[in-house]
Every structure is written in structure tokens, then in C-alpha cells.
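Long-time lurker. I teach an intro course on protein structure, and each term I like to show students one example going from raw sequence to a predicted 3D structure in C-alpha cell notation. This year I'd like something fresh instead of my usual example. Would anyone be willing to generate the C-alpha cells for the chain below so I can use it in lecture? Attribution to the forum is fine with me.
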Amino acid sequence: MKRIILIVLMISLFFGTSNTYADTLQLNGDGAVLIDFDTGQILYGKNENKMLYPASTTKMMTAILALENGDLSDLVTVDQEVVSLTKGSHIALEPGEVLTLEQLLYALMLPSANDAALAIAKHTSGSIEEFVKLMNSKAKELGAMNTNYVNPNGLHDDRHVSTAYDLALIARYAMSNETIQKIVNTITYEIPPTNKKSETRYFKVTNKLLFSSEKIDIDGRLVDIRYTQASGVKTGYTSQAMNCLASFAQDKNQKLVAVVLKAEGNSVYSDTHKLLNYGFDNFDSRLIAHSNEFIDNISINNAEIPFVGGVLDRTITFPLNDSSLNKIERRINVYENLEAPIDKGQIIGEVEFILDEKIIAGGNIIA
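-- Reply from a regular --
Happy to contribute to a lecture. Here you go:
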């Protein structure tokens, strides 16, 4: 049981004057979202929950499951089914060819090889069908409730759908894995000769954010597609899905994930630049409360001293713009009928931090 102490305090955070930011970014993509990596908070959205075709951004999930269910040194033998089902981009895998899981993951995430996706799926789950079940289960686990996978590579199927927000959740989870971070921030890679190939395979990442000097228009300015703070994550294209991109970027203490779906040509990069610029320009990871911050004196029953000091058990930060800094409320919930003795470090309540009537963060009150 809890007793809600009626103390709702406005946190006085005056770090600067309020600025007015544009309510609408001019984006070409049909669906888009920008989230804060550390908290998952949505910073900007356009049709972020609209079901669209994810194309090869699907392969983020394939990589996640490969690493969670296998080792980079695993030897994977390609079979005839993988070769027969392969359409679109590929690295010309052959029946009986043996590669490591690591090599296949680089082929999956850099040149977006569909045959690598199929080979990984069969190696991981024994069949493509079972792997797809695993994909959908993992999506629900991550909160991607509007996602339905039909295959491990993103080739078009009317039932194979996701949303910008769901894919941002998946990209955020993927980029918490150091191996995926390394792979998707690699520009070029090579696979040496195998038991079936006498020549080295060379390939390059499809994500132009990492390397391209092609020019795009950003609000009347021509800039390189390359975004210096970017380090991932995955491109996608089919004629039905059009151009898709899930991206990650970091600048100082701010980490962002952006997703753009169903954009025309290089507009997928223009939209991504606009989203990331908006995040870096308008938000920062602000300190809301610090570990061991005094919260209140909490009443204790049957004690020589009838109260104990309560402090916060963690440091809390949240992405905020200046206009939100003085709007955060703090609500204190104290456990009911606390009896002596109380141990140091014992949890005696909770603190909730509220912005625009939504709980954005919280922590325990400890003695």
C-alpha cells in the first residue's frame, strides 16, 4: 500500500529563455520519427504509427536475433533453399558454401544481401518459418506492436509491415549491441575466398549517411549526404516501400534515432538530416534530479525519531527543450504505515516526474 503525499512540486529549472521551434518539419517521407536513444522519448513524429512497408530495415531484427542466438565464429552452410529463394540484392552464395556468421552479418547489413538473411535465418532457427516466428515474438517483446514480419530480408509482401516508431524501437535496441554498432559503422568489408569461391568478395555499405559527398537540399542549403555524427543503422528499398532509412547519431551527450519510411530517392537522407538537426538543435539531455538528492522527511511509526530523511536512489536525465524546463512536476508517493526500524538504503517510496500530464521518469526514495 502507498500513501500519496500531496506534494506536487514544480521543479525550478531556469537554464535559459524559452524558444519557439517549428511545429512542422517539411518531410518527404510518408512516415517518420525521431526518438531520444537513452529514454525512448519521441521528439518528433509524422505518421509515426502508420503501417508501411519496412523493406530491408527488416534486417535489423535479423541481425539482433542472429547475435542473440549464435556466435560470430559459427560456421554456416548455405543450402539450395537459400539460393532458390534469393531475389534482389545478394552476394552470390552457393549451395554447400561455408561462411562464418560474422561474414554473413556484414553481408546482411552493408550491401543488404538477401541471401545472407535467409542463410542466417536457417542457421538460427532451422527453418525460415521458425525464424520469422522468432522475429515477431521479439518485435512484441520490444514494444513494436504494429509490426508483422513475413520474411527475414524485407522483400515485399503485403503482410510484411511496420511503422516508423516500431522500427525506431528496434533500431534503438540494435544499437545497444556493440557488435551491431561496429558492423553498421563500417564502410567497406571483404570476404576472402571460401570453399566455393576462388575470389575475394568486396562490398560497401549502402547507407550514404556514412560516406557520400552527393549533395542534398536542406531548407535551401546544399550539403553533403554524409552526416558526420551518424554511425548507422540500415537502409531499405523496394518499389512498394520506396526508400527507407533507420539512422543513429551522437553529438556530445545526445544520442538520437531517426526513421524515415516511403521517401523518394535521396529525400530519405534530406528528411533524416532535418530530423537529426532538429533533435540536436532543440533538445539536450538535461539533469532533472541527482542521486542522493533530498526528497523529504518521511514519517515513521513507533520510532524514537518520528521521521527519516528520504533521498533519490538515482540520477535522472531527460531530453528537453528550453520551453519545457520549468514545466516538470514532481510527485512523491510514500509507502503507507512505515514502521521502525528502517534500514539505511531501504525503499520507502517513489518519485514520479511529470511533463504535460505524462510520467516521463521516476525513481525510488530510499532512507
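Some talking points for your students: The CA atoms of residues 300 and 338 lie 5 Å apart. The first strand starts at residue 2 and ends at 10.
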